[in-house]
Write a structure and sequence with these properties.
The chain is an alpha+beta fold. The chain has two domains: 27-134, no CATH class; 139-199, Hedgehog/Intein (Hint) domain (Endonuclease - Pi-scei, Chain A, domain 1), CATH 2.170.16. The chain has helices at residues 10-13, 36-52, 71-79, 113-117, 220-231, and strands spanning 85-90, 96-98, 128-134, 142-148, 153-156, 161-163, 169-171, 180-182, 188-199. The strands form three sheets. A four-stranded antiparallel beta sheet has the order 5-4-9-8, with no helix packed on it. Strands 2-1-3 form a three-stranded antiparallel beta sheet, covered by helices on one side. A two-stranded antiparallel ribbon has the order 6-7. A hairpin with a 5-residue loop joins strand 6 and strand 7 (169-171). The chain is elongated and about 55 Å long. It starts with 9 loop residues before the first helix and ends in a 10-residue tail after the last helix. 34% of the residues are buried.
Length: 241
């Protein structure tokens, strides 16, 4: 079954575009690359400290370690034998990336998954947010070439989220021949041929086509969707109005 991304296309249609100030310009899997045992460890470590809420945020968990909305995807991936893991950026320092536990260049780079699990929460600074997850299998420069009915061609990462004819977000690697991409003007462009494994630098941004920020799994998604929902509730349904 094709898995749809959690962000509604409405987010883009209402002008919350891919260049919002909190997005990263490059998806950072290769910046913070760890092996699968370490990925398992970081995921368990992050999920544990999210529920412990060590910095005492209002509420019962700290989504800056790990967002609960990623649980189902992580569990599905683990059942297939691979582990997604959280990536972090520093929201107070121009969104510079933060190397999480086990990353190359850190003092614990050699740690096994079990050793990462045992780390304290202090190895993630309080102000660093969870701005996405890395999904193994998508090389940074691996591309998929989409040949379109308009005559155009798009070279994108297999993980690049696009909007199809039904308004769903799909990764480019999940598209099929016969699917259509939605343009920014609302028109559709049918996919005639998909060439996987094409080398080269993926195009970004894709001018003329609806797409999503690289960090489509950002913790800000929950806030955006909440605002969208609130903005579309009729006044007569809101108490006191």
């Amino acid at each position: 079954m094709r898995k749809h991304l959690a962000i509604p296309a409405l987010t883009l249609l209402l002008g919350l575009n891919a260049q919002a100030s909190w997005t990263l310009s490059v998806y950072p899997c290769t910046f913070d690359s760890i092996n699968q045992d370490q990925a398992r460890g970081r995921q368990i470590w992050a999920r544990y400290w999210a529920t412990q809420n060590p910095y005492g945020l209002a509420g019962t968990r700290d989504n800056r370690f790990w967002m609960k909305l990623l649980d189902a995807e992580a569990d599905d991936a683990a059942a297939l034998g691979y582990y997604i893991y959280p990536l972090y950026v520093d929201s107070l320092d121009n969104y510079n990336r933060f190397l999480g536990p086990g990353a190359k260049g850190t003092w614990n780079a050699h740690y096994t998954g079990d050793q990462i699990i045992a780390l304290s929460y202090i190895y993630k600074p309080v102000h660093v947010i969870n701005d996405g997850v890395c999904e193994p299998g998508f090389a940074a420069r691996e591309g998929v070439t989409l040949h379109l009915r308009s005559g155009g061609r798009l070279l994108v990462s297999p993980a690049h989220p696009l909007v199809n004819q039904e308004g769903w977000m799909l990764r480019a690697g999940e598209l099929s021949v016969g699917d259509s991409l939605m343009r920014t003007d609302g028109s559709l462009d049918e996919v005639l041929l998909i060439e996987p494994g094409q080398d080269g630098e993926p195009q970004t941004p894709l001018d003329g086509y609806l797409e999503c920020p690289d960090t489509f799994q950002s913790e800000r998604v929950e806030e955006l969707n909440r605002l969208l929902l609130r903005g579309n509730v009729p006044d007569d349904l809101i108490p006191g109005r």
